[in-house]
Amino acid sequence: MIRRDYILQMIEEFARALARINSLKAGQRWNEVEEELDAEFKKLTGEGAPALGRLSEIELLARLMSAGPTHALRDKTLILTTLLKEAGDAAVAEDRAGEGREFYLKALHLLLEVLGGETPVECPEFVPKVAMLVAALEPEPLPVHTQAMLMHHYEQTEQYARAEDALYTMLEADPDNAKIVEFGIAFYCRLLAHSDAALAEANLPRIEVEEGLKELEGRRKRE
């Protein structure tokens, strides 16, 4: 109960901070937005936005683990994801597109890390959706590592056609990568275990799964 109360209080406090940030965004008071964001970043990790922008996702998670109770790590990660998305919005609004992209990409990776676990996650309403972050990163191509994480997420959420799209984006980016071919073969083999109805509902009929598997097995033989 004490742990749950701690998490609920943390989320309530962040929701109030986010409301202030959104109010400042609506008034296009970007300097104040960045000050609020910096304060929230420091509260959560001990570091401000500039320092966090230079850290990898693993380093960010390590900061979260060292900055408070570990039982709240998942919720703190979702809060950090939201803050990074907001920092991306602020950077883009201030014509710092490259910096904004880095914030968006870190937010997407952290979110996919949380959603990719074995236990289903119910995110608070303030957490950005995967599709929102992907759209914010367009039209620049995503790194292969990011596409692999997206593919896993789409398969996990039964969006099989989107998972296949992510697979072929990876193959187009690195067509001679045998590991991606094997990754794809394993994906199609898993899909073949699903019913025709489930595959059709996810816009990837069995015949297309079989054709995709055949195509990748052909690539494997040619390597």
What do these coordinates show?
The protein has 223 residues and is mainly alpha-helical. Helix content is 75%, strand content 0%. Helix 1 packs parallel to helix 5 (73-93), helix 6 packs antiparallel against helix 7 (130-137) and helix 9 runs antiparallel to helix 10 (178-191). The longest helix is centred in the N-terminal third of the chain and has 25 residues, at 2-26. It is elongated and about 55 Å long. The mean pLDDT is 92.
Low-confidence stretches: none
First-residue to last-residue Cα separation: 57 Å
* Separate helix tally: 12
Q: Could you tell me the mean pLDDT?
A: 92
Shape: elongated
Run of helices and strands? HHHHHHHHHHHH
Radius of gyration (Å): 20 Å
Number of strands: 0
Hey, roughly how much beta strand do the residues contain?
Answer: under 5%
Main sheet summary: none
Structural class by SSE content: mainly alpha
Helix content: over 70%
